[in-house]
UniProtKB/TrEMBL annotation:
Domain HD-GYP residues, every copy: 113-308
Matching Pfam families: HD_5 (PF13487)
SUPFAM superfamilies: HD-domain/PDEase-like
Highest taxon, organism lineage: Bacteria
Organism encoding this protein: Amphibacillus indicireducens
Gene3D superfamilies tied to this protein: Hypothetical protein af1432
Transmembrane portions of the chain: none
Lineage, opening ranks: Bacteria, Bacillati, Bacillota, Bacilli, Bacillales
Record's protein name: HD-GYP domain-containing protein
Coiled coil (UniProt feature): none
Amino acid sequence: MRLVTTRGLREGNELAKPIYNDKGRILVQSHVKLTRPIINRLLELGVTFVYIKDELSEDILIHSTISEQVKADSIHTVKSVFKSFKDTGFKNNSFLLDKTTQKMTSVVDRLINQIQSDEQVLTLMSDIFISDDYLFEHSVDVAIYSIALANELKYSKSEIREIGLGALLHDIGKVFIPEVILKKTSQLTEGEFETIKTHPELGFEYLRKTDFPLLVAHCAYQHHERLNGSGYPRGLTGDKIHKYGKILAITDVFGAVTSDRVYRDAMLPQEGLEILYGGSGTLFDQDMVRTFRDSITIYPNGVTVELNNGAHAIVVRQNKKLSNRPVVRVFSHDNETVTPYDLDLAEELNITVVG
């Protein structure tokens, strides 16, 4: 199966994987022949990429690190927890907080188990989700990326759980920001942006009064800090930023740019990674960015890539620890169709992906 942009779909294309909502329900089933009204509806719903069937890629397997059901359950739990926090505000309800701690820890443990039991590199592209609110899906995605990165950095089990909880709750301060600002589709005013920038401190002040570890609160506090001091809310620099804060800085940005937003389409993983590399060493920890690259699928199975020798190819499968050098199936060269053949970029080191 092949991964294509929704804008590039044609009538008659056959959907190879179903499209889910954030409750885990199938909105569009696989094997459906796409019509113009269906394509237009997918565009309206903000679906940027879909998997379609074609002969060239029919044997390509799409792997999912996190099952559709686990992701849907996680999003649902985060949504209910955030709503309860919003409804109670800063009031201290020990029973509610105890139940919330149990719920969120359970989500994190399930994500850790799935990530650690999977021997392949992390990919989320295989699950095309439609979520009714960016905040909840983003929180789960950032938790998945943060757990994968902490795991690759060989953190202890307790540290991985802490970073997972911190990632799930890093944006909790946004529930105290007016929705009219959070969901605004046009450019924010200077005053509105300053309001948005209060969410790390709001999250910290809320979480530090709960039963969650204090470092979980610091994840909310520091995820917008940057190595060179250009971040907020405190403008911390270098090692004044906790290692969890450095992880969250990377995974929060990556999760944001590779998700659909009301004002722009999602980027592919390699485009998100280019943004991280652009700030590597100045905004983001260089070693962590490099490790993160090795933790995720940069070129998802089924995506079309351009090679430096003028060839175009479809990614067939991944090479672990060499996420930028997958196995690809070449189908054209210098815009001329050729008999398809597979090429392992881990062995052909003079050939690289350029687009």
